[in-house]
Design brief:
The protein is α/β, with parallel strands linked by helices and 319 residues long. The protein has one domain (17-33, 40-315): 4-Layer Sandwich (Metallo-beta-lactamase, Chain A). Helices cover 19% and strands 26% of the residues. The strands form two sheets. It has an eight-stranded mixed sheet. It has a seven-stranded mixed sheet with strand order 8-9-10-11-12-13-14. Strand 13, helix 8 (283-300) and strand 14 (303-306) form a beta-alpha-beta unit. Helix 7 (257-266) packs parallel to helix 8. The longest helix has 18 residues, at 283-300. Bound molecules: zinc ion (2 copies). One zinc ion binds next to loops.
Length: 319
């Protein structure tokens, strides 16, 4: 096992120098992400950062092509997964024979659930997997909705035939605990019932809003989104479109990078992580986004990072 200090040695992260809340960022093309190395704080590991559909190719090699999955690690707690896109397969490799896992599922679109059947701890008896997610407007819970997808003929076996024990918990606008964390869930404008989450632990806070319909009426955001984001240490947010992409896609449930920046500024976010990249955005284009957004952040007192697979953030904060 590679040690944390070995992974971080020699890396320099100038964009983080201005942010006291992010201790280290490691961008690796490394499949054994050190999510279980002892940490005194909250750690985020990005296993999948794309929106819409997985993609691959030399042109997206550095940022990666797996869909949404971020792991939040707390000392002494089971792994907490934010979404189950194709990136969760790599989280499974790192988790080995973990006894229990929790997941906060933002919504049920394919790019957020497609990795679930390939998460290897689900194939072991004795693993306990608890999935929190939004109930549907037709009354179906998150469990019934997933069962309707992970079942023949779309998948060889049904979710109830997996050896692991699944538990499903429905939420709307709620407050609840997961392990030793406090979780705030709020409905977020997208297409279909969608939750954003704010997870707080030990004076640190992380908000996760992977898919967010930019308001078209000039408002900054809904009251629920403001609750999730206000003063948060790290906001992981939809960054699907650039201005040019938005034309013709104004109502597809997403937002522009510029909107994510304005939202972060309006809500007093300390660190913004641009996430859920359009599958058509190649590495060079994302480099340009990252550079421009980081510069904007320096001018506005916000650390702005652009998510890539293997990105690891240690979070410390003041609430
Ligand atoms: Zn999505
Ligand atoms: Zn979606």
């Amino acid at each position: 096992m590679v040690s944390w200090s070995a992974l971080t040695a020699g890396f320099a992260f100038p964009e983080c120098d201005r942010c006291p809340y992010v201790l280290a960022v490691v961008s690796l093309r490394h499949r054994n992400y050190p999510s279980h190395i002892d940490s005194e704080g909250m750690r985020l590991t990005f296993h999948g950062v794309r929106g819409s559909t997985p993609c691959h190719g030399e042109e997206i090699r550095r940022y990666g092509g797996n869909t949404s999955c971020v792991e939040l690690s707390i000392p002494g707690d089971p792994p907490l997964l934010l979404d189950l896109g194709t990136g969760v397969r790599y989280a499974g490799t790192a988790h080995g024979d973990v006894a229990s896992v929790n997941c906060l599922l933002g919504h049920l679109h394919w790019d957020h659930i497609q990795g679930l059947p390939f998460y290897s701890p689900a194939l072991r008896a004795g693993t306990s997997i608890t999935i929190h997610g939004p109930a549907q407007s037709d009354g179906r819970g998150v469990g019934d909705t997933l069962r309707s997808v992970v079942t023949p003929p779309m998948f060889p076996v049904s979710i109830d035939e997996f050896p692991a024990a699944f538990e499903f918990v429905d939420h709307g606008d709620d407050e609840f605990t997961v392990g030793s964390t406090m979780v705030l869930s709020r409905l977020v404008p997208h297409i279909g019932p969608t939750l954003g989450y704010r997870v707080s632990w030990g004076g640190c806070s992380v908000a996760y809003i992977s898919d967010h319909q930019e308001p078209l009426n000039g408002e900054v955001c809904s009251s629920g989104v403001r609750e999730l984001c206000s003063g948060v240490d790290v906001l992981i947010h939809d960054a699907q479109y650039l201005d040019a992409d938005f034309i013709g896609h104004e109502t597809w449930g997403h937002c522009r990078v510029d909107y994510a920046l304005r939202l972060a500024e309006s809500c007093g976010v300390k660190t913004l992580v641009l996430f859920h990249h359009d599958p058509a955005r190649d590495d060079d284009a994302l480099d340009a986004v990252a550079s421009t957004a980081a510069e904007w952040g320096r001018e506005h007192g916000i650390a702005v990072l652009t998510a890539s697979e293997g990105l690891i953030i240690e979070v410390t904060g003041a609430g």
